[in-house]
Write the structure tokens for this entry.
Amino acid sequence: MSDNHLIEEQARRPIRRSLWRGLLKRCPNCGAGRIFERYLKPTRCCSNCGEALGHIRTDDFAPWLTILVLGHILVPVVGTIDYYLTPPLWIILLSVVVIGTMLALALLPHAKGLCFGLMWALRMRGDEQH
């Protein structure tokens, strides 16, 4: 394979565009097809452009990213509620569990799409050796 062909092939996968499309749960290649068949199950290939997607495994990357984001959202919210309203501890814990669960379920597919787009742009499969 020539160097020009390799450079041309890598130029077709810009990371920012792939991240954005993944965040929107769209094919990182064309931006039109969906990357998930169901809630978190990736499709084998894009229904629009035919790009193979089934080989990419994000494993624990998406849940880790979701937890990281949730921590930065929930901690200030809980601190603010406790400071200004001072409710009983059981109300704080119950609200954190409910809000945290709802946010996690809403954020997880987008986080997985983001990870999916990044891995596609970097030509990673998820089975690389460390």
Observations:
- The mean pLDDT is 89.
- Residues 10-121 form one domain.
- Residues 36 and 84 are 41 Å apart (CA to CA).
- The helical segments are 3-11, 15-23, 61-85, 89-121.
